[in-house]
Amino acid sequence: MEIPDRTLSQIQGCLIGGAIGDALGYSVEFTLYHEIRKQYGPLGITDFDLDNGIALISDDTQMTLFTANGILEYAAKQAKTDAVLSKEAFFWQAYQDWLHTQSEKIAPVPPSCWLFGRKALHSRRSPGNTCLSSLRQTESGGTLENPINNSKGCGGIMRVAPIALYFSPERLPSDDPAAAAAVIGAKNAALTHGHPLGYLPAAVLVYLLHRIIYAQDPENISLEEIVSDACLMLQKNFPKQTEAVNTLCRLLQHAVLLAKEEEEDIFALEELGEGWIAEETLAVSVYTAIKYQNDFYKAILCAVNHDGDSDSTGSLTGQILGAYLGFDDAACAFDITPLEEKDTILEIAHDLYFGTEHDPNYEEKYVSHTYRNDFSNK
Ligand SMILES: [Mg+2]
Fold this sequence. Notes:
The protein is mainly α. It is 57% helix and 0% strand. Magnesium ion is lined by residues 58-60, 125-126, 311-312.
């Protein structure tokens, strides 16, 4: 695929990088560190463990793709009306479509996402219980003001990256577009995860990715500085969540400090947690991304070889560094030929970058409630 400029490369790098980390981590998600090394050797897992020749992606990448589909439907329909449409309603419908792919017996809402037509996405890959139960139980999901539950699992943060990718400063006019995108990220996570530490980390991830991709001075990006700015962003935009903001910022500061020390990775990660809950998933990913900021391969190995939630920490690390280093660095670190739904991921990256406003082909893809049935091709 021809890459016309750096921003598209970063968007592709973010989504492909996330899928790489997700696929490596999915093979060892429920495997302890000593068992991983027993199975794969002293360095742990170092490449895709193929299933019938395919590097399987998990619910993390599946839901990330549906987030993107929801945004693009929102954007395509918003462009056709003066009424202000709810982004969250489009996210919710997209996740209902994802729920359908998980063989869930729920009320028959017609699927609208074209991704629903991808047979390979109709696979259950250890989906998070909180996402499943939240999507089953209400018609519209939780909000920041009316939390749906008290969960701070990582099912909210692991799917929000496309919000940072799509809502460029041009598409989200604001004094601080990264912060504005971060608030959309928090609202998205709150649809299914009601604890502040379930949705504030999602805001931080969106903020980090947005600052990395839409930096005003791309030659001089400091990941450490952006993490520090993210804490100021939280304090300013979530004044009612002081306790959770302080907890999250302390953990992120600890991750940044650890990344600059000589501590062995496995001991550093133990201090940050196993990544099952959102603040820990983010902290582990911030640690690995900063420590190995110029080496995508080493970062992913660090992010997946531990006792915890390897696919989510692998996915977030891959997203952050894929955005930071660009598509070539992410895609060349591993042979991505067997990566499941690689072309679908790149198609979604293309659509997020170019938008739906000016292409008549998007009428059927994102506006009308029809989905492309590709089952016969798989
Ligand atoms: Mg997963």
